[in-house]
Write a structure and sequence with these properties.
- The chain has about 90 residues and is of the alpha+beta class.
- Helix content is about 55%, strand content about 15%.
- The protein contains two helices and four strands; from the N terminus they run ααββββ.
- The strands form two sheets. It has a two-stranded antiparallel sheet with strand order 1-4.
- The radius of gyration is 23 Å and the shape is elongated.
- The chain starts with a helix and ends with a strand.
């Protein structure tokens, strides 16, 4: 659960949260502390959130994956026992 929260939810909502914090700080004295919800740029906030999420997923997938040479063997049943999936080293 924490991994999904950090890699999917946080980058998706972070631009909106930062924009609302900035908007509230700028307009605090002008509008009495309320945020005009209808005037927010929802499309741009959504596009920015999706782009940031895609960037985070790309970085996590490319830079934190393992590069183990070998052949992946899927989980299977052997002599009545379940053998978990694993990577067998490549034969020279």
């Amino acid at each position: 659960m924490p991994r999904e929260l950090l890699t999917l939810f946080l980058p998706l909502v972070l631009p909106t949260v930062l924009y609302l914090v900035w908007l509230r700080a700028v307009r605090w004295s002008q509008s009495g502390g309320t945020v005009p919800w209808r005037t927010l740029p929802w499309v741009w906030l959504g596009i920015t959130g999706v782009a940031l999420t895609a960037l985070v997923l790309f970085v996590v997938t490319v830079h934190f994956g393992t590069n183990v040479p070998g052949v992946y063997v899927a989980p299977h049943v052997e002599n009545g026992k379940i053998v978990p999936g694993h990577i067998e080293p490549a034969k020279p």
